[in-house]
Design goal:
The complex is a heterodimer. In chain A, helix 1 packs antiparallel against helix 5 and helix 1 runs antiparallel to helix 7 (about 160-170). Chain A contains twelve helices and no strands. Chain A starts with a helix and ends in a 10-residue tail after the last helix. By secondary structure, chain A is an all-alpha fold. Chain B has three domains: about 10-105, no CATH class; about 115-165 and about 465-520, TATA-Binding Protein (2-Layer Sandwich); about 195-440, no CATH class. Chain B is elongated, with a radius of gyration of 37 Å. Mean pLDDT of chain B is about 85; it is low at about 1-10 and about 505-528. In chain B, strands 4, 6, 10, 11, 12, 21 and 22 form a seven-stranded antiparallel sheet that branches. In chain B, strands 13, 14, 15, 18, 19 and 20 form a six-stranded antiparallel sheet that branches. Chain B is an alpha+beta fold. Classes of the chains: A mainly alpha, B alpha+beta. Chains A and B meet through helix 9 and helix 10 of A and helix 3, strand 8, strand 11, strand 22 and helix 9 of B. The structure holds protoporphyrin IX containing FE. Protoporphyrin IX containing FE sits at the interface of chains B and A.
């Protein structure tokens, strides 16, 4: 029924190609992140001995270019410690990150092509079942990551962006694989073009915010006790800096999630005669929403340190993932579009 | 807190209340309540809920004995109307009110008072630029003030400096957000009291006249007045469906089209509509929603005298599988002699599987087949106990047998007739489609939509409008521009620099040029 099977097959091929490039990108990024041994001692000290207050100024050097030096090791115009040599060293040491980013851009192009061919094969939005949802959500995650990178160097996330995307794509073409086909009547509505892409965007934002939260926690621990196994976090910006980016992204994600919830409620009214009925999907969307509301409150509450707040962020992403996987597959509800 | 609790021997009742109120309205308690709310919502997704599927609750109770009883006692099957869940969100609402009222008052005052004076030492502000200027200081301040106004700041002159503030909308947004949230919660609670929800099954050709008796089930809110049911009629003219016959794997057999042609009649005026899953038909403030569909085999039953004692379509309920295998019961109370009943399955596309069993392999009518067993005896219709039309009390009846004494199996294709041992016969005439519709009314929906939109707008403002204070001070030809963020504001340094660059106007740069302060960026975002 109106399926261009050639295009659908192309899409599958493109997914696999993208996965291969993601895998290499992940390795390159991992070298950048964990292969910190060759980092020169001078840079390390310059990054560490810098007073915390300098952080904010250094941000401007990280603006606008993808390959700008890391915030922590990069320019610091007012401490005088940035001799050209050390900056040079930092640049060289991050060659792996540059390779990673270039590969990620290539993978993203293949990935977006996979999404487009899939969409064209059925001439409809590419998020009609779980496989397609993952396919598109991971593409958006990579795009969001690349966009954030233009404004602020967060390439230290690269390993986990590429890794997470790789893992998800792997699941999408195995466990969640669904052949290309038209939509079931329950999904034939213009609300699918409003509710779902924003849900996808939210998931991407909240995922990136969550990886940042992990780095924030690790870095904070390193700042605190400097355990050996966290030496790689030297390359990261200060934990308060990571926290701020994580928060900003989560705040945008929270707004889009709120929109998702409201749009979902409006769609539910159109489809099921009531805007809210505590269907299992509705329940978990609500749980996610409340957890992130708690996260935002915790941040403004005295007595809640940044690490505790970051843990709420992680609980948040855990419930987002639960909502997508377990609720879709195992809970029976009206919201069953998994295609499995 | 620990100290005060240790040394407060006599608070008295009102003291206690005030203490409790103050605790309840702190951010910390609001936060804990939020976390508890998230946790409390979860069991409703793990256990069957009466609002979703009362049948599953009953089955769960049957299967789980005392454990089920216990869960029922603590309202685990009615989580969202339970005392404990309600208490949590009510406490949260009270906390919210206690939080919003004083903040609104404060904000009201802040909006009507001038931006506060500059602190003595501006150098410690997160955004800070100093330079020298030969311009007359009053003139300079005039320019600065105009400039700031243009940038959307509210300004005030205080002696040697201009004070400016922007971003009041941030707090306004925050208050709008929290208040709309309150309104939304109340609306949700109230909406269910004044509306109703009903279900009805319509076979092609059936007409539904909106009145209480016409509903198969009807759940009014506590204050719903059934006399106010809007007057309309709705006829199901035709139902069309299409299923995927081309795609492989799990997509094979999935539905692709469900479309009901209906005619509505209001005040004698008739209109045709297409009712689809995501396109309800709205008549007289009521929505009619397509929620299900299935097959209704048309069967004619004759008794021993040859008289037609039953004819027409009977609703068979699909099992949820892709083949639309459907179960149903045909009751024949008026047969001569004894009453008859038939239980069976309808297979839209009957096929033999590997084990030789008849199954339905596709949802469309490719090889419709009806397989039934027959019973004679008392249907129990007169017992006064309400009966489901979908079940037969077969235990109190006798199963029909064929000549060899085996239980009789009726297997009928369309147009076929089979004789019954009692001399009657059963004919499978054809198949009609039926739809299940929800009919509901919720007068508060509009209000809900408005509050939801306000929630979203308020949230956007409260998270992304930068709230910022700026000061421009001129003393002895030395100009200082400083900016302080109140809340999250990544642009605070830039704001000071841009303004300074603007004001300097290409003037001669001094030695002190653009010393950007690097401390205190978080001062403002740390809440009291
Ligand atoms: C149903 C309960 C509540 C929900 C769902 C909720 C949700 C939210 C959300 C999503 C935000 C983020 C917007 C922002 O950060 O500006 C927020 C902010 C805020 N809420 Fe609530 N809230 C609730 C109750 C309360 C209560 C009871 C209080 C007072 C004790 C309160 C005080 C605040 C404050 C002060 C902010 C601003 C925090 C900031 O500036 O970062 N909220 N609320």
């Amino acid at each position: 029924m109106d399926v261009n099977t050639d295009l659908a097959m192309w899409s599958n091929q493109l997914i696999v190609s993208a996965m291969i490039v993601y895998a290499i990108a992940m390795i390159a990024y991992a070298f950048d992140l964990f292969g910190g041994r060759e980092l020169k001692q001078s840079e390390v000290t310059s990054a560490e001995s810098k007073p915390l207050s300098v952080r904010r100024t250094s941000r401007k050097t990280a603006t606008a270019v993808l390959d700008a030096p890391d915030t922590a090791t990069g320019g610091s115009d007012d401490t005088g410690s940035d001799d050209a040599a050390s900056r040079h060293g930092a640049e060289r040491a991050r060659r792996a990150a540059r390779v990673g980013t270039s590969l990620l851009v290539l993978a993203a192009l293949l990935h977006v092509a996979a999404v487009l061919t899939r969409a064209l094969s059925v001439m409809r939005v590419p998020w009609g079942n779980m496989m397609e949802y993952i396919l598109t959500a991971t593409a958006i995650t990579v795009v969001v990551y690349l966009i954030v990178n233009i404004r602020k160097d967060v390439r230290y996330l690269g390993t986990f962006v590429a890794g997470g995307v790789l893992l998800s794509l792997g699941l999408s073409i195995t466990v969640f694989y669904t052949p290309a086909a038209q939509l079931i009547p329950a999904l034939q509505s213009y609300w699918i073009a409003i509710h779902v892409p924003i849900a996808i965007l939210s998931t991407a934002l909240l995922y990136i915010s969550a990886i940042l939260a992990v780095f924030q926690i690790l870095k904070a621990r390193y700042e605190d006790r400097a355990p050996k196994w966290l030496r790689f976090t030297k390359r990261l910006p200060a934990s308060t800096d990571i926290e701020r980016v994580s928060y900003t992204i989560a705040a945008v994600g929270f707004i889009t999630w709120t929109f998702t919830l409201i749009a979902g409620a409006i769609w539910a009214e159109v489809a099921w005669s009531r805007y809210w009925g505590w269907d299992s999907k509705e329940i978990w969307t609500f749980v996610v929403w409340v957890v992130y509301a708690a996260y935002l409150h915790a941040r403004a509450t005295r007595g809640w340190g940044p690490t505790k707040v970051a843990v709420l962020n992680l609980i948040g992403i855990a419930s987002v993932i639960f909502n997508f996987t377990v609720v879709n597959v195992y809970f029976n509800g009206l919201h069953s579009y998994s295609g499995l | 807190m620990d100290k005060s609790t240790a040394t407060q021997p006599q608070l008295g009742f009102f003291g206690m209340c005030r203490w409790a109120w103050r605790q309840l309205t702190t951010m910390r308690v609001a936060l804990i309540l939020l976390l508890i709310l998230a946790l409390a919502a979860i069991p409703g997704s793990l256990l069957p809920q009466r609002i979703q599927d009362p049948g599953r609750v009953t089955r769960f109770l049957e299967d789980n004995g005392a454990w089920g009883q216990f869960l029922d006692t603590i309202q685990m099957f009615d989580v969202y109307s339970s005392i404990w869940f309600s208490s949590i969100y009510l406490l949260l609402m009270i906390s919210l009110v206690g939080c919003v009222i004083p903040r609104s008052a404060q904000h009201w005052k802040a909006m009507r008072s001038a931006p506060p004076k500059a602190p003595r030492r501006l150098g410690r502000m997160p955004g800070y630029v100093a330079f020298t200027s030969a311009t007359d200081s009053q003139e300079f301040l005039d320019t600065a003030q105009t400039r700031l106004r243009k940038l959307g700041y509210r300004t005030a002159r205080h002696g040697d400096h201009v004070a400016a503030e922007r971003g009041y909308l941030r707090e306004t947004g925050n208050l709008v957000f929290h208040i709309s949230l309150l309104v939304a919660t109340l609306t949700m609670a109230i909406g269910s009291l004044f509306g109703y929800q009903g279900q009805r099954i319509l076979i092609e050709g059936d007409t539904f006249t909106n009145s209480l008796v016409a509903y198969d089930s009807f759940e009014p809110g506590a204050y719903y007045d059934p006399d106010t049911l809007p007057d309309f009629r709705l006829t199901l003219d035709k139902f069309t469906s299409a299923f995927d016959a081309d795609s492989p794997g799990a997509q094979f057999g999935q539905p692709r089209v469900f479309e009901a042609e209906v005619t509505t009649t209001v005040d004698g005026r008739s209109e045709n509509h297409t009712l689809k899953v995501n396109e309800p038909v709205r008549v007289g403030g009521t929505g009619v929603y397509l929620t299900g569909n299935g097959y209704a085999p048309e069967v004619t039953v004759r008794d021993a005298t040859g008289k037609v004692v039953q004819s027409g379509p009977t609703v068979f309920v699909p099992d949820g599988g892709p083949g639309y295998t459907s179960e149903g019961v045909i009751k024949v109370p008026d047969a001569a002699g004894t009453q008859m009943g038939f239980v069976g399955v309808f297979l839209p596309t009957a096929t033999q599987n590997d084990k030789g069993e008849l199954v339905s392999s596709f949802a469309e009518l490719r090889n419709p087949y009806l397989v039934m067993s027959g019973y004679t005896g008392d249907l129990g219709l007169d017992s006064g106990v309400p009966q489901s039309v979908y079940t037969l009390e077969a235990d109190s009846m006798t199963q029909m047998t064929d000549a060899s004494g085996e239980p009789l199996v009726l297997e009928l294709g369309v147009g076929q007739t089979q004789q019954l041992p009692n001399g009657g016969s059963v004919t499978f005439d054809g198949v009609k489609r039926y739809v299940a519709v929800d009919i509901s009314q919720d007068p508060t929906q509009g209000l809900m939509l408005v509050s939801a939109i306000c929630v979203l707008l308020g949230l956007g403002l409260s998270l992304f409008v930068p709230r910022r204070r700026m000061w421009v001070r001129v003393a002895d030809g030395r100009v200082e521009v400083a900016a302080l963020a109140r809340g999250e504001d990544p642009m605070v340094e830039r704001a000071a620099k841009d303004l300074a660059a603007d004001l300097r106007d290409g003037g001669p740069a001094s030695a002190e040029d653009s010393r950007t302060s690097t401390t205190g960026s978080r001062i403002a975002s740390e809440r009291d």
